[in-house]
Amino acid sequence: MIGRQGWGLAAVYALRDLRGGINGFRVFIACLMIGVGAIALVGSVSKAIVTGLENDGRKLLGGDVALRITHRGISEEQKAWLRKRGTVSEIISMRSMARGNTGIRTLINIKAVDNLYPLYGGLVLSPNLSATKVLRKEAGVWGAAVNPIILDRLGAKIGDTVSVGNSAFQIRAIIEAEPDPLGGVRGITLGPRFLIADKSLPDTGLVQEGAQITWEYRLRLPPQTDLKLFREELNTAFPDPGWRVRDRTTATLGIERFLKRTTQFVTLVAFTALLIGGVGIGNSTRSYMAAKTGMIATLKCLGAPQSLIFRLFFIQIALMGVVGTLLGVLLGAILPVIFATSLSQVLPLPIEVGFYPVPLTLATSFGLLTASAFTVWPLAGACQTSAAALFRSLISPIAKPNGFGALLTSIATIAALGLLAVGSAQDRTIAGWFVLGALGTFLIFFGAGKLVMWTASKMRGFRTTEFRLALANLHRPGAQTGNVILSLGMGITVLVTVMVVEANIWRQLEKSLPGKAPDYYFIDIQPNQTENFDKILKASAKLDFMERVPILRGRILKVNGADASKVKVSDNKRWVLRSDRGLTWSRLPPPSANIVEGEWWPIGYQGPPLISFDLEAARAMGIGVGDALTIDVLGRPITAKISSLRKINWANLGINFVIIFSPGVIESAPQTQIATVRLSRGVTTDIEKIITDRFRNVTAVRVKDILDAVSELMAKIGWALKASALITLLAGILVLGSAIATAHRQRIYDAVILKVLGAKKTQVASTFLIEYGLLAIATAILAAVIGSGAAWAVVTQVMRAEWEMAWVVLIATVLTSCSTVLLGGIIGTWRALGRKAAPMLRND
Amino acid sequence: MILLKDVYLSLDGPTGQVDILKGINLEINIGETVSVVGPSGSGKTSMMMIIAGLERATSGHVEINGRVLTDLSEDALSLFRRDTLGIIFQNFHLVPTMSALENVAIPAEFCGADDAFDRAKKNLELVGLGHRIKHYPSQLSGGEQQRVALARAFCGRPKVLLADEPTGNLDQETGRKIIDLLFALSTENKTTLMLITHDPSIAEKSTRIISLEDGKIIGSPTL
C-alpha cells in the first residue's frame, strides 16, 4: 500500500512536518541563496551588458560598417567606392596637448568629425546645441565640445579659448554623452575627449607624416544590405588595403571577450562560495536529520519502510533546495534592476537590464546540484537510523550510510557540478584548473580537519583543565572541527589569494613609479625635430636617461604565408594579430633587449628584411627563429624572417616593441619618433611645458597618468573580485554559524555541567576561547599557505608577472579573518555560559 | 502468538562483545496479557525489540503470529510492524509537528485505509480526547500524550501490543488511568499485550508475569 502511495503519502507527511517551521533550514537556505545569488547576479549583469552591446552595436560603432586605418587616409578611389554603397562619414582621431590661458596643459584625445557625425545615435551636448553649430568657425575661431575633465584640468570654463597645436579653439559645450564610445570603451583610455570639426584640423598643424593619427570611415548602408556580402565585395575590390574592418555585428567582440573572461573568473569565485556553502548545507541537513531521529524511529516503529522515510525527507530537503535556489536566482535577477542606475555609472557601457533565462538557469542548476551533492549523504545516513534507538532512550549520532548508492550519488553530483562549471566557462582550461584546485583545496581542508581532530585526540599531559577540555571539544564525537576548518579555510584561502594577487599588482605599479619607469613619453616627434628635441631636453633638465626611437604602425598579415586570421594563437596573445601594432627599426639591439633565441643582425646589415620578435608572442603562435611574417606597413606588405626572439618585460613601462625591423626596410616610410625620459631625482623642471611649447605637434604623456588610469581600472576589477571573495568568506561564516548552532545544545550542557562541578564562568569561557583559538590557528596557517600558493600561481603562471610575497597583506587578511572566527565562536557560545543550571538539569 | 526459542543477543560495545540475551524461550498465546519485570540491564527492552523486529537475534527462532522474523528483510519487518504490532513508549514519541489526530492516523494511513482519520477520531474519543484532536503534542499534558500514543497504537488494529514502561513518565494517578485503559482496549480488541514495568501493581493486572535477570527468564508464574 505504501509502495503505491509512496510519494503521495511522503509528500503529505513532509508538508505536515514542515508546519513545525523551517528553523533548521535557515542556514541551508542562506548558504544556497548566497552562492546561487552571486552566480545569478554576475551572469545577469554580464548578459545585460552583452545584450546592451549587441543591441547598440551600430550606435557604438557609429555606423553599419567602420574602416579604420592609421597614419593616412584612404584614397579618393576607395572613398568613391564606399560612397556608391552608402553614406560615408570621416572621423580623425589623435592625441595631443591642449593649453589653457594660464599656461596649464593637458593631454587630450582629439576627435575631428564631419557634418554627418554622428550617423547613428545622438551626441548630447551641454548647452543643448547641435554639433555643427558648436564646432563651426565663428569670428575666426573654431569651436570645440569637450569632456568636462579638460575644463577641470585647465581651470577653464565654457567660452574660454584653448590652443591645440597651432590653432585656437573656443570651448562652447561639454560632452554629456557620446554615442560611439567604441575605441574609447577600453580598459584604459588616455586623454579625455576633445571634439572638433574635421575642417579645423589642418589649422592645428598636427597632421604630419607618420604622426599617430587614426582615420575612420563609417558607413550608413541601406537597411537591406547583407553585411557579409558587403565585406566580401570590399575585400575583393581592395585586397590588403591596410585597414581594419568592423561591422555592427562584430563591433563589440573585444569588449565582450574581456567581459566574458571577467565574468568567468568572478563566477568561478562565486562557485567556490557555493562549494563552501555546500558544507553549511550538509551540516544543516545533518543537524536537521539529527533532530528528526526520534520522528524517524517512531515512524519506523509504526511500520514505515525506509523508502517512505527517505522520500519524506528528500521532499523536504528538495523543497528547501528549491526555495534557497529560487531566492538566490531572484536576488540575482532583481539586484541588477534595482541598481541599474548605479551600474551604468560604474560601467560606462550600454546595459540592457532585463530577465535573462540563460544565466538564471545556469545559477539554478548550480544551486540544485550543490544541494543534492551535499545532502544525499547525511539524508541517507539518517534514514538508516535504527528504530531501536527509541527503546534505549538515547539518540545515537546519525549513522554513516551503508552501501555505495549514497556515496556514488554524492560523487556523481559533485562531478556534475565541476563539469557544469567547466562547461559553462569561456576558457575551459583555466576553469578546469580552477575547479581541480578548488576540489583539491576542499580535500586538503577536509583532511586537515581530520588531522586536527586526530592530533587533538593524541595530545596528552596537559595540566590545565581548560586546555584539556578544549582539546577534547575538538575531537569528541559530533565535534564540528572538520566543518569549521573546511568551510572557513576555503573562504579565507580565496580571500588570501585575491588580496595577495592584488597586493602584487599594486606593488608592481608602485615599484614602476620611482624605479626604472620613465616619467614621460613624448610622441609624434617629427624626424626633422629630433636634433633640437634632444638638445632642448638635455639643456632643460638633468636626465637619468632618455631613449628615442622611430615608430610606425603595422599589422601582421601572414604567418609563414598563411593568413594571420587563420593562425591558431592562445587567447592572451591574440592582440598581436588582431590589429595595428607599433613597430620600429634599429641597427643595434635596444639597451633593455633580452635576446633569448637567435641573433641580432650584424652592424651594417644590408640583406633581406629581418625582424626581432617577442618571444611569448612567437610561443603563442607556434613559430620561432627562421619563420616568416608578412607585415602591412602603410599599405605595403613586407615579408621578413625572424632572426631573434626577445623576452620583453612589459611591466617596466619602457619602449617595447613586439616587432623590430632590421635597417634598410622601413626607414624611408613616413614615421615619427617616440621618446621616453626619466628626470634625475629631485629635478622639478616642467619639461612637459618646455617641450610642448617649443614643439606644438609633440604630445607629452605623463607615465603617472597612465599608472593612474591603470590603477582606476585595477580598482574596478579588484572591487568585483574582492566582493566575490568576501562572499566566499560570508559563506564560510554562515557555515561557522551552522556549526555553532549544531553544537549549541552540547555547549549549554557542557557549561552547565562544568558549573555544577564548580567551574568558574571564566574557566568555561577560557575553554571555549582556547578551542576556537586552536581552530583559528590551524585554519589560518593552512589558508595562508594554500592561498599564497594559489596567488603565486596566478601571478607567475597566469599573469606572468614578478612575484613578491605580500606579508603585510597576508598577515592582515589572515588575522582579520581569524578574528572573525574567534569572535563568531565567542558570540555563539557566550549565551551558553549564561544559562542557569537548574532548568537545564531538570529538562534532562 | 509470540514464540521465542533459544534466542541469544550479543552486541558489540566499546569494550568488546556484550551478551544481552542468553537463551530466551518464551511462548505467549493470542489475547494473553504478559508483564515483563526485572532489574535494569536484565534484557527486558532488548527482548521486546527482538519481538518488534527492531533488533535481530544473534541466534534462535523468533516467530510472531506465524511469521518468522529472522527471515524478513528490513522493509518486510516494517510491513510486519504496520500490520501486526502496536508499540507504546515511556516517552510517548509522538511526532511533534503533527496534531493528535494526525499522530493517531499514522498507522492507518500506512495501511492505506481510506477511513484513517475517522478511525483516528474514534480512537481519540475512546481514550477521552475527542475534544483535543487538533492539539499538537506540545499543547498536551504527559497523560494526554500517552493517551494519544495509546489511541495511535490501536489505530492500526494490532494483533500484538508492546508497551515499554508506559507509565514511567507519569504520576501515579494518571499512570493508573492509562494502564486501565490499556488493559481495557487490549481485552476489547483481543490484542496480545506485552508490557514492561517496574511496578508490581501493574504487573499483577496481567495474566502472566515474566521475570528476567542477566538475559535469562528466571520465572514465568501464571497468575
Structure description:
The complex is a heterodimer of chains A (844) and B (223). Chain A has 26 helices and 21 strands. Chain A is an alpha+beta fold and 844 residues long. The longest helix of chain A is centred in the C-terminal third of the chain and has 54 residues, at 703-756. The relative contact order of chain A is 0.12. Chain B is of the alpha/beta class and 223 residues long. Chain B is 35% helix and 28% strand. Chain B contains 7 helices and 10 strands. Chain B has helices at 44-51, 74-84, 100-110, 116-126, 142-155, 172-189, 200-203, and strands at residues 2-13, 16-28, 33-37, 59-64, 67-68, 85-88, 160-164, 192-196, 208-213, 216-219. In chain B, the strands form 2 sheets. A 6-stranded mixed β-sheet of chain B has the order 6-7-8-3-9-10, sandwiched between helices. Chain B has a 4-stranded antiparallel β-sheet with strand order 2-1-4-5, with helices on one face. In chain B, strand 9 (208-213) and strand 10 form a beta hairpin. The interface between A and B is medium-sized, with 31 and 35 residues.
Bin the strand percentage of chain A.
15-25%
Find the count of extended strands of chain A (DSSP E, 2+ residues). 21
Low-confidence stretches of chain A: 183-187, 393-398
Structural class call of chain A reads alpha+beta
Determine the N-to-C terminus distance of chain A.
39 Å
Mean pLDDT of chain B: 88
Number of helices of chain B: 7
Strand order of the largest sheet of chain A: 2-3-8-5-7-6
Number of extended strands of chain B? 10
Quote the beta fraction of chain B.
Answer: 25-35%
SSE order of chain B, one letter for each helix or strand: EEEHEEHEHHHEHEHEE
Output the strand order for the largest sheet of chain B: 6-7-8-3-9-10
Quaternary state of the chains: heterodimer
Low-confidence stretches of chain B: none
Task: Tell me the major beta sheet of chain A.
Answer: 6 strands, mixed, barrel
Shape by Cα distribution of chain A: elongated
